[in-house]
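[Automated response] Your request has been received and processed.

Submitted sequence:
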Amino acid sequence: MIRRTIAVAFLWLVLAACGGVVAQIHTVEGLVIEVVGDSPVDIEAFTMRTPQGEQLRFSLVGVDFGHGGFPATHLREHQALAQPVRVTYRVEGDVNVVVRLEDAE
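Generated structure:
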């Protein structure tokens, strides 16, 4: 929990230092119900269902996974095994853009 808080705070500082508009960061947990991509290693998006039954779609286009967590290719394993994931993301217009993917605890 502390590591996640530090990572989110770091992202805020980086965005503020760049002089851009600071996007609000959100975190949600749920089950991966769909993975979209041309190949097992080229994943463009995925859909998650939260414990409340809400379905959220996330974009992975142009995402840099240098902030830790696990790579997008690991999503297919979570989908197959029905293991929950934690997604940290920002909203850009109508698109939920992934910042970090983690195993849900």
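Summary generated for your ticket: The chain has two helices and five strands. The first helix runs from residue 2 to 17.
If you did not submit this request, please reply to this message.
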